[in-house]
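Quick one, T. Sequence first:
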Amino acid sequence: MRTLFISLFMMVLCGQPDAFAQAMFVGYDDFCGVPVSVGNTGRGAIADRDAAGNPFIVIDPDMFSNWTNSRLFVLAHECAHHRLGHTTNLGKMNRSSPWGTRSQELAADCWAAKALLDRKAYFDVDRVVRNHVSKGHYSSDGYPSGFERAQNISMCVFEADLNVRDSFYSGCSMQNSSCNHALHARGDVMHCRHMRQAHLNGDVIPCQHACRNIYGGAQACHPRGDIVPCQHAAPVHPSGDLVPCQHAAHPGGHRDLVCR
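Structure tokens:
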């Protein structure tokens, strides 16, 4: 029966895009029984469903060339996407929404961490967290940053079992660090200190020169007024000067996971 299922699975898989067409079946995910294949995905591990709605997992072999990755955690993480409904049509629709990818990745990390905790696989979780910590605050394509994932996994483990605090992460702790992120990334607007003449063409004042009109009476020589050098100062930038922001986004600093 299993041989028949494997054959059917490979037939369906061959009907998938080229990225999965050359995938080789290697077994079943021990966390949820989903068939696992190895193939060039170009983006690590993938949890998805075939045209018939059957779940599967494909893992790029390059993912395990980096020994900082835990194979157990990767399998548990991809299984979590199936268990949490992320591979359903509704799950895919939610993933495309703002913050959808971030939310699903953190949820899958949490599920995987607790699954490994049940197996006392503390070393694997420790390895994953240290790997994420090394990636810092960088994030892209909607994915959470390394620090976000490390802190999320730690909190999930601690919430699942408070007794693991001493056995898990003996070399890691939450510490305060100063914030170096400016509150206003584009800078602060301050009153402009650069002054210039308000009217570059001069000021117009009532004409002070008397002339005679055609009737012999007195009148201003310049009916529209005299132009004299402007004596009024005005800022060069009325809306203010833009200067580098000196305000920290988080005055109290960051709570970061530090591992030694």
